[in-house]
Hints:
nine-stranded mixed β-sheet; 11 helices
Amino acid sequence: MSMADVVYYDRELECMSRPQLETHQLGKLRDQLHRVYEKSPLYRRKLDGAGIKPDDIQSMEDMHRLPFTEKKELQQSQLENPPWGDFGCITPEEAIRVFQTSGTTGEPVKIMLNRKDWFENFYQQFMHYRCGYGLTEKDILFVPFNYGLFIAWWGFQAAMEQAGLMIIPGGGQRTKDRLRSMIDWGATVVCGTPSYLLAMAETAAEMGIDLAGSPIRKLVAAGEPGAGIPATRQALEKSWGAELFDDIGATECGNFGHECIRHKGTHIVEGLFIAEIVDPVTLEPLPDGVLGEMVLTNLSSESSPLIRYRMRDLVKFDRGVCECGRTNLRLDGGVLGRTDDMFHFAGVNIYPSQIQEILHCIDALSLEYRLVVPRMGSGRHMKIVVEPAQADTKADQLEQACEELAEIVQTRIKVTPDIEAVEGGSLPRFEGKGKRVIRED
């Protein structure tokens, strides 16, 4: 693969030197600070409380003086000032689109977008994705999600429409109908959460559909960790016979990261965002290559700019120049987990992605699972609920697979689990974000 295969949306911003980029970011940051100080009551209170005025930020080193923004602040703002809260910078009369977060970590946060954010800023964000993925006007995009208040793939679809791709909307269909539609209509690109893409592949196999022999050449995965887990990536690419690309974003702050055709990490769109990495406990900055929590500042949003927003995503930064020529920092392996998915049990911090990775090693077990975490002090073990990969799996094979799972979990995670096997296909599949950790009261 040569450099001739690499396509940029804004080559100057994507390939500029770090000093030039930080000069660009500082100017945009100061503009945003003036915006939120003048138009967002929440941010005026936060900045006044920290003793900071917008003009006090004179360099990127001054970023640490700015207070963090927490999701719970946005939730509290909307609870006290329903329905929109007082953190945004536009009025309902200026808004043309409204969305809300999924609610997997508490009360959903509602977001308004004005015309510029929807038609210009989202378009710019997703055009970075389109170019990074190597999509062209010849591609046909299948979008298998229900069109509701979750932003999910709304922005991606709108930008790809503007870019000239044909869109096949798959909302309101069952998985089997979606599979038939995308095959019949000749889709070349399919997007979805890693969980749902895996579920679609399972259903396709049951229907006798050869996805690897179809025109589908690329998958775009977002909404949850998974595309960055090597075993999950391998399973998706093998079952679909397609190249997988990671897409990261959030309803609150936009779409900020994409893979490129070199697959050397997830690029942050640093012309439009400032990304930091901190220790999730101390909130102190961390060096590149160390696992930490990502903090994001949106430099382009007019509607709901967020300053130093704690994403809860666990990542590793790599500021080296990518083989594609982009100098913007990359997330090594994409999003590796979430701090709010982590749970503490038997003196160990456990991430669901660890269980997912282990399941890929055991052929007799499906990749679907649930983690049941007993209440502290109950004396019970953590339980992993699994199912056989095939309906005809024999009882002794299933028993052996469960024993193998328990042994690997004990070796790698240092926790002794109980394993419960249920009937194949009985664990619900997720179209959106998968919630696989069940905490007992």
